[in-house]
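Example: Methylmalonyl-CoA mutase.
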Amino acid sequence: MSDDTLTLAGDFPAPTRDEWRTAVEKALKGAPFDKKMLTKTYEGITLQALYTLDDWKPENDPSGLPGFKPYTRGGQVAGQRVGGWDIRQLHTHPDPQAVNKAILTDLERGATSVTLRLDDAARGGDDADQAANYAGLNGLMAYTAADFDTALTGVYEDLAGVALESGAAFLPAAALLAGHWKTKSVDAATVKGAFNADPLNRLAATGDLPGGVEAGLKAMADLAAYTSRTFPHVTAVRVDTGPYHLAGATETQDLAIAMATAVAYLRAMTDAGLSIDDAARQITFQLPVGADQFMGIAKLRAARRLWGRVMEACGASDEAGRMRLTAATAERIVSQRDPWVNMLRTTVTTFAAAVGGAETNTVLPFDAMLGLPTEFARRVARNTQLILMEESNLDKVIDPAGGSWYVETLTEEVAAEAWTLFQDIEKHGGMAECLSNGHVLAKIEAAHTARARNIAKRKDPITGVSEFPNIHEKPVDIEKPDLDTLRRAAAARTKESRAGVSLPLDKLGSGAVTEAAIEAAATGATIGALSAALFAGGEEDTVTALPRRRLAAEFEELRDASDEFMVTTGARPKVFLANLGPIAAHTARATFAKNFFEAGGIEAVTNAGFDSPEACAEAWKQSGAPIAILCSSDAVYDDMAEQTAQALKAAGAKRVCLAGAPGEKKDAYTAAGIEGFVYLGCDALDTLRGALALMGVIDR
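Written out as structure tokens, the predicted fold is:
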């Protein structure tokens, strides 16, 4: 056996980057290199087609090591090797008993913590009978500590943490949860949880903040002060950028907003007397992760780097500079139509979250945009994480993307751009001021406009919606709770226990208000009574609320209109595919046209093709479709398109379109009666809206 060392590729000369580029340009056959091989992201970052050592110099180890500054590679020295990441499940069912059953199922089958989102009434600071139209909508009807007793029966809260989403009523909701702990003798030294006060999130998402921003920040600081000295394993504050991301923010804008919001919260807490270290320890971050895998990984790595830099500038200790990071499925990527595809999307987001080093991950069930998630959908959400952790072993290697020339370069570029945007927010007065004066919204609108244009043109395809739609898909069965019954029961129990509450507002910021609120909650005070006392005398601050923009929404609105039309008339709106010539000639464009129109809920009536304009026009008459789409090859179009268009118009077609870009023949086609063209890169939304309006399906 030879002792010689085998050097793979040792006999081959190492090509240079210039040689590679020359070879690529030859393969492109004259097409511009930059146009074909470079990708410009919405963040303004140019992605190269190839990354090498020249793009990422490892000298001085710029990303550091896990658990050490700059924290790019993770905040914990052991990463997720010990116990994996926290699998957190979101619960939004209005009935506390139903939530309890679902929580126990989740925890028994792999989830390790839960988030309770309160309903619209509670998040606004009202009891069920005070805001009857909002009670039970979009969350849990929990108005008293006893409601939390019901929802959390059988949960070992020293093992499975409970997090809240409670909007403007973050301090009253925290008091109810803590009141539940108090009455159930849960040990404050071991209980796990997150109160998640986030007043600027509420202001941005809904456009209002009861009591105003100044009072909201003081209440947040009060909760943080009490939590810091009472609950060592509970955090008081969360920076959740979900509303900004849903409105259309880029990933770098999202990170900049996160940093600016966190700095605003740090200032409020330190002004109230907390040290910078204690204030930092009270903050967790929840960042949405989209379907762009590598951007998601880079975003989370950049987030830690940015926060470490903020903490360094504030003079915090190294330990305090470690970000507590939760990743969540970005709501904007989740579709209502063909919701099964969401399973694939959330697999990508989970992978990115794990590789990016999130300590906690919340995966939205695939049917989350349709209503209350089914038990099956929650199971799939849990098991997506469990498979990637326990079978794919994503928790076994710390920062597996570290050292990748592409990911390291992208992380640095994302961090640099986000830092510039963060500084811009600070220069314009900080996060609260930028919400008030519209600066943040204007930046988001500009980013959204570019993305919306590409979605409309299907340059950013949405599988199952704008591409490959299934017009005959069967709806998912979604539970519809009996809200009337639940509202009556909730109103009865809150009326019985509601009484006036007095809080020491002159001590707001010290923790005294939270302590008094917990005492009141433990003796039966409702979220409405606590909120009334907390907001007493304060004026509501208002701003322009951020819009909610799922990527698929505009196409899905057309599908909804088609469904309504079918219910009313018994048939879907439809177009006739005027396939010309043999199957080999028309199949490609006929398939394209079918996919194109069904993305708008318009059924495509197809056929085997026609050899004459007269035969095509006769078949169109039998179809009952008001619109005809010519489909064939360019060669067949040269022979038949104009004559067939004229025959169709003469037969009564309201509109004739052609599948394909017209090129230099546009004038001739238009003169023959062809009124529109469908092709790759055309404005699909505009064309579909025009067709549906012509058929009386929508107004335009």
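The first strand starts at residue 39 and ends at 40.
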